[in-house]
Write a structure and sequence with these properties.
The protein has two domains: about 5-65, no CATH class; about 140-270, Sandwich (Immunoglobulin-like), CATH 2.60.40. The chain is built from three helices and 13 strands. It has helices at about 5-15, 25-30, 35-70; strands at about 140, 150-160, 160-170, 175-180, 185, 195, 200-210, 210, 220, 230-240, 240-250, 255-260, 265-270. It has a six-stranded antiparallel β-sheet with strand order 1-4-7-11-10-9, with no helix packed on it. A five-stranded mixed β-sheet has the order 8-2-3-13-12, with no helix packed on it. Strand 12 (about 255-260) and strand 13 (about 265-270) form a beta hairpin. The longest helix has about 35 residues, at about 35-70. The relative contact order is 0.12. Mean pLDDT is about 75; it is low at about 70-125.
Length: about 270
């Protein structure tokens, strides 16, 4: 039954303008609902609103449940792995993976990249220095005069524990002597010509103020073949300097002494 028919029937019933009808029909018509279609539509809309609100509440509850299941500080789910998280800020707490403080003691685990090298001790060929000898690079014996002293002899000798070089002078004064540990090449004073001296270690013996001309008439080169002293070569007698190079087999350790009657300077080279 449509709304217009229903309305007209209701109006006729109130005015008693309806034709006669069975009592049963009148009773049924009187019990028809009095609400209009618009009222029923409003009720339907209100029901739909309640359903919508219920649906929104359900969605909100579902959202909360999803959020709570997520990892992180706002959820209760499992913490995300370190490899899946990137951060651009500093850590809020101290790192347990690295430390900037130096190690207090040695590491309990040896490094595989830098193994400890074995210590190799090489035997020394340098003999112990005997009392009175020195291996200093330079030693100076002062002069006892400012005048030029003439050299009258140069000679060699060997004794137990040392080989000896002797310079002898005219008069009672001696020149200055400088002993230097030297190394080749050697050359002749004034000319600069090379001079070859046998040996593996060397001493340069320089006398100043001294001269061998014309008082010294001995050889300018010796090859004694002693335990340590193997050569003694004169490399110059020039402008008050007289220079000799001593060639040695081993260490260049020496001692200097003086003698009188005649005046002499002695250089002993330590020998095995």
């Amino acid at each position: 039954m449509n709304d217009d028919l229903e309305r007209r029937l209701r109006d006729g019933l109130r005015r008693a303008a309806l034709p006669a009808a069975p009592d049963t029909l009148r009773a049924r018509l009187s019990r028809l609902p009095t609400e209009s279609r618009a009222s029923r539509l409003a009720g339907l809309v209100s029901g739909l609103r309640l359903a919508a609100l219920a649906s929104a509440a359900a969605v909100a509850i579902a959202f909360v449940l999803v959020v709570r299941s997520l990892p992180g500080p706002t959820g209760t789910g499992p913490v995300a792995s370190l490899g899946s998280v990137a951060t651009t800020g500093p850590s809020a707490g101290p790192s347990t993976l690295a430390t900037s403080s130096p190690s207090i003691g040695p590491s309990s685990q040896p490094s595989a990249l830098s193994p400890t090298p074995s210590v190799v001790i090489y035997p020394t060929t340098q003999p112990s220095v005997e009392p009175g000898f020195t291996c200093a690079a330079t030693t100076v014996l002062p002069a006892t005069t400012s005048a030029v002293v003439s050299i009258t002899d140069t000679r060699l000798g060997t004794h137990a524990g040392y080989d000896r070089i002797v310079f002898e002078f005219a008069g009672t004064k001696r020149p200055r002597l400088t002993v230097d540990v030297a190394s080749p090449p050697f050359d002749q004073d004034a000319s600069g010509l090379p001079v070859k001296v046998a040996g593996s270690a060397f001493l340069k013996l320089r006398l100043y103020d001294a001269s061998g001309y014309p008082t010294y008439t001995g050889p300018d080169s010796f090859s004694p073949g002693y335990p340590n002293l193997v050569a003694l070569v004169n490399t110059g007698d020039y402008e008050g300097y007289v220079t000799w190079i001593a060639g040695l087999r081993g260490s260049a350790c020496y001692r200097i002494s003086t003698l009188s009657g005649p005046t002499r300077i002695v250089v002993d080279v330590q020998a095995p």
